[in-house]
Backbone:
């Protein structure tokens, strides 16, 4: 509680101090001028985007030394990244479950991963330009899974001039474990009307075991990544673009499974392909056609052999989209579109094979307009027809009222939903080291939410601040319900089935702000208070903290090409379903020094004070870790 009070005192000073300025150089645009597309599917300045939207830039990602998207989201407002089943690192927004957030890559859907989650460790930041986060239901544009929010990972575009970067890094923790080697690069440029970008990364990280008991705290990892992007200018106004990405990783570590110490090995692969055609017409009229395929494959096994632990899963998403936007009557920006999507799953466990697929067809319409000069309104409606649970309409209404040139009010109402996954509908799976059996339920309904929010924000040339309150009701939550127990002793198993039995209320307050200080210093941060109530009295809605905070003190000396920062992340009153409750701060530091225009040396430390949280013999936070590296640009 002390850290919470300390942070609030510091943060309120950041946001509301008189004469504060934005954390940037003299003459830089305000943070609210960042361009975003995820909130409306049309380009908007961040300050003009409806609802609660955040952008994590490439500069901020580098200052965190975030190697993966999971690392980069440490600083996000109202968002918590946590370890889920299978050590997946997934994000939850505003207290919802990880499955309640839609993760996109350049606006494209990704196939579900292990246990229907998107592991954010699988996406390295070497190709990431920025991350856009929409907090609150966005099903009016994106349909299923956008019940709680959207995380849209925007990758680098093929450049207009030849350029590139190569980086090498080494890290180790304070116990001499978790040695990590990283090498990444990207390069691209133009060839007449053709532009391209190629990128790749290879990492090797040793395992680590602080607890000294099974399961191991950190598994050995060997992630690899490759991606390519191209754009071909057919005419001055027509562009054909596309790309692919391939990611693979092998996780190896010890685990106590079926009452015996074993080696757990998981081989994962994720790949995606897309082709897109854009037409940019006069008077702000644009047309887009895109086809996308995403595939995830996982092989899980144990040594010595454990039958219930042997599992092969392949999931895919095939998606076709058509979208048009244009300005009508000089005041109405109309966006309309349609989407067809097929999701499939092939799962084999305990010699039980499940091969299923579902289809979804949708139409959506959105209108952005000014009733009068300071009042801007966005109205949207989407229709989805799902082959399993039926039809669903998702409306949204948002408004922005400009009190002054630098001060605006925002308000939003929206509905969201999540269709039951193929796993929940059709797959029998084994959890908790083979002791629990989860049975599918083909009669599940979609989870749904209704959300309201209101906020105020301000931005000057070098200052920004915002305060938002939100309230969300979630209904038809899918939970596992105990059915029966079979067997005795070591063969004893508990059986559960998925059912729509729960409802919850999520409410909270989010604050964020930043400004510069004299002599090259800057400060920015955010704070979230969250209250989650499970109205059904069942399992916890998601193991969310009551408080979450982030604050960063930065320093920049451009003439010496020097940048450094000291930051703190705070998790307050994190309560788990078994009653465990934790509060803890994590401190980190980063330093970089440039030499000329090409070379940059950097070093840093994470979890400076070696804070540890242990649950079920697993340390949830990595111990103090040191790293250093070099990057070269051309």
Residues:
């Amino acid at each position: 509680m002390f850290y919470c009070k300390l942070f609030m005192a510091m943060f309120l000073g950041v946001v509301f101090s008189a004469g504060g300025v934005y954390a940037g150089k003299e003459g830089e645009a305000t943070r609210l001028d960042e361009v975003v597309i995820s909130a409306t599917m049309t380009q908007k300045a961040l300050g003009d985007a409806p609802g609660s939207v955040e952008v994590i830039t490439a500069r901020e990602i580098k200052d965190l030394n975030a190697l993966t998207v999971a690392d980069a989201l440490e600083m996000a407002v109202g968002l918590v990244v946590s370890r889920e089943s299978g050590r997946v690192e997934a994000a939850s927004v505003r207290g919802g479950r990880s499955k309640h957030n839609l993760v996109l890559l350049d606006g494209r859907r990704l196939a579900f991963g292990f246990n229907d989650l998107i592991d954010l460790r699988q996406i390295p930041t070497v190709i990431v330009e920025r991350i856009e986060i929409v907090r609150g239901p966005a099903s009016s544009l994106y349909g299923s899974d956008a019940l709680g929010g959207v995380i849209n990972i925007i990758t680098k575009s093929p450049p207009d001039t030849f350029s590139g970067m190569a980086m090498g890094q080494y890290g180790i923790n304070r116990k001499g474990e978790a040695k990590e080697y990283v090498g990444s690069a990207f390069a691209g440029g133009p060839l007449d009307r053709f532009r391209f970008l190629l990128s790749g990364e290879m990492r090797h990280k040793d395992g680590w075991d602080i607890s000294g008991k099974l399961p191991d705290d950190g598994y050995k990892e060997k992630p690899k990544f490759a991606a390519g992007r191209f754009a071909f200018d057919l005419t001055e106004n027509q562009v054909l673009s596309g790309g692919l990405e391939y990611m693979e990783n092998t996780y190896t570590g010890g685990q106590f499974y079926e009452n015996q110490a074993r080696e757990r090995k998981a081989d994962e692969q994720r790949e995606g392909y897309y082709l897109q055609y854009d037409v940019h017409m006069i008077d702000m009229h644009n047309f887009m056609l895109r086809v996308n395929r995403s595939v995830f494959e996982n092989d899980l096994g144990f040594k010595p052999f454990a039958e219930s632990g042997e599992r092969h899963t392949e999931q895919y998403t095939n998606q076709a989209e058509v979208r048009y936007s244009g300005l009508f009557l000089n005041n109405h920006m109309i966006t309309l579109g349609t989407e067809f999507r097929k999701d499939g799953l092939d799962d084999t466990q305990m010699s039980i094979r499940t091969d299923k697929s579902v289809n979804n067809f949708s139409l959506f319409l959105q209108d952005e307009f000014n009733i009068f000069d300071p009042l801007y309104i966005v109205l949207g409606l989407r229709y989805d027809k799902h082959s399993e649970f039926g039809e669903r309409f998702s409306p949204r209404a948002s408004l922005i009222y400009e009190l002054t040139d630098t001060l605006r009010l925002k308000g939003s109402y929206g509905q969201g939903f999540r269709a039951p996954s193929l796993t929940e509908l059709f797959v029998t799976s084994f959890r908790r080291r083979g002791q629990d059996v989860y049975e599918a339920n083909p009669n599940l309904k979609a989870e749904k939410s209704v959300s309201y929010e209101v906020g105020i924000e301000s931005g000057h040339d070098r200052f920004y601040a915002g305060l938002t309150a939100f309230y969300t009701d979630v209904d038809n939550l899918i939970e596992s319900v105990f059915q029966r127990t079979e067997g005795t002793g070591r063969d004893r198993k508990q059986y559960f089935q998925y059912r729509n039995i729960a409802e919850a209320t999520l409410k909270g307050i989010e604050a964020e702000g930043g400004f510069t200080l004299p002599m090259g210093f800057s400060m920015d941060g955010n704070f979230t208070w969250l209250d989650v109530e499970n109205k059904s009295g069942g399992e916890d809605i998601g193991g969310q903290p009551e408080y979450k905070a982030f604050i960063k003190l930065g320093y920049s000396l451009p003439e010496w090409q020097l940048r450094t920062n000291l930051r703190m992340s705070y998790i307050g009153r994190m309560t788990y379903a078994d009653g465990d409750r934790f509060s803890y701060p994590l401190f980190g530091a980063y330093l970089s020094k440039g030499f000329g225009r090409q070379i940059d040396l950097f070093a840093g430390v994470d979890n400076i004070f070696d804070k540890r949280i242990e649950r079920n013999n697993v340390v949830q936070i990595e111990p103090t870790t040191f790293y250093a590296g070099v990057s070269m640009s051309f």
